[in-house]
């Protein structure tokens, strides 16, 4: 459990979240098969104010700090990574507007996002630009006195179900972002097709054809898109994904432990076999290490520590890497049971793979972390 690392208030908050989310435990296999979250589940998240939990209280959000928000993702990750991703992409988009939105956007756009009446998603990736977003071709230009958006975004989590998108584009070679409503003429949303993981996250493809944008929908200044807004969104996203991975690892560790204790082979419980002991020990210690790294990241964010970005990167990298390794091991340990498509281990195994692709692939995080870790080591020597 993570409780021994928390204050009494934080532990009570976590326990309440786990209890509330328990109602959905039997459902995720159905959601994955349907390829989307059912409307009642999304409505429940909105009504519980989970989508706006981390948004400022003065705008109608929950005003939760990073620790409480992290615990929400951990609790959601135990149920379904797709469910946790609903809150995550909404929060990533909204937090950019909280920090860089105009007064008008704070007044008109944020309250419905904070109180759960509208859902947001974030659109960065394009067919030709994923890890390297400097290749974004979606173009915003003024023509005949109108601001028109043209281009294509792919793999947009909850693209099929969100009400509004934060879209990254370029204007005269400068990177920018703007808000686009899903019913805006000139925007067509189509399903991405079935994914390996996050199957219930209703990924969408967005096609903009002379989609007219109000000048008041531009967020931040020209040139801010990649330099300021993307890093801000990704920091929120990575913090969320790290905690969600901790929740998922908790689930596979539980499944692996129960199976190792109950299942007998060659006259003994599996847990008495050396190879299984090694697997369970590595899984359990990596789970504990993941929780420490996630909490260190949250506490650094809450205290405004200058090392917060490094801590978030480290937590996301480590949590997702060990989750991928151990979810594969858990499938191996539970063997045929583990390979059942509707089971927890198989679902987490699929979801773990894609968590190592989004919010910065493993390789991109290594590219970012290696120089930071090496320089920090030299500074401390
Ligand atoms: C389930 C899922 C949900 C997603 N949701 C969203 C969303 O909501 N919004 C959104 O905008 N995008 C979303 N994405 C897209 C995601 O952000 C991109 O897939 C990711 O950034 C990687 O881009 P790419 O797939 O184009 O891979 P590429 O950038 O083409 O990379 C291909 C491979 O090359 C490696 N690589 C690239 N550059 C380097 C380098 N310099 N050194 C070493 N290796 C390198 C990568 O690690 C990868 O293995 C989602 C993706 C998935 C799978």
CATH architecture of the largest domain: Up-down Bundle
What series of H and E elements makes up the topology?
HHHHHHHEEEEEEEEHEEHHHH
Query: What overall form do the CA principal axes indicate?
Result: globular
The Cα radius of gyration reads 21 Å
Give the CATH H-level superfamily of the largest domain: Butyryl-CoA Dehydrogenase, subunit A, domain 3
For the termini, the CA-CA separation is 34 Å
Q: Would you identify the regions where 5 or more consecutive residues have pLDDT less than 50? A: none
Top-tier CATH class of the largest domain: Mainly Alpha
Strand order of the largest sheet: 1-4-5-8
Which topology of the largest domain does CATH recognise? Butyryl-CoA Dehydrogenase, subunit A, domain 3
Present as ligands are: flavin-adenine dinucleotide
Task: Describe this protein's structure.
- By secondary structure, the chain is α+β, with helices and mostly antiparallel strands.
- The protein has three domains: about 5-115, Orthogonal Bundle (Butyryl-Coa Dehydrogenase, subunit A, domain 1), CATH 1.10.540.10; about 120-220, Butyryl-CoA Dehydrogenase, subunit A, domain 2 (Beta Barrel); about 225-375, Butyryl-CoA Dehydrogenase, subunit A, domain 3 (Up-down Bundle), CATH 1.20.140.
- It has helices at about 10-20, 30-35, 40-45, 65-80, 80-100, 105-110, 110-115, 225-260, 275-305, 310-340, 345-355, 360-380; strands spanning about 120-125, 140-145, 145-155, 165-170, 175-180, 185-190, 205-210, 220, 265, 270.
- The two termini are about 35 Å apart.
- A hairpin with a 2-residue loop joins strand 9 (about 265) and strand 10.
- The structure holds flavin-adenine dinucleotide.
- Flavin-adenine dinucleotide binds near residues 121 and 203.
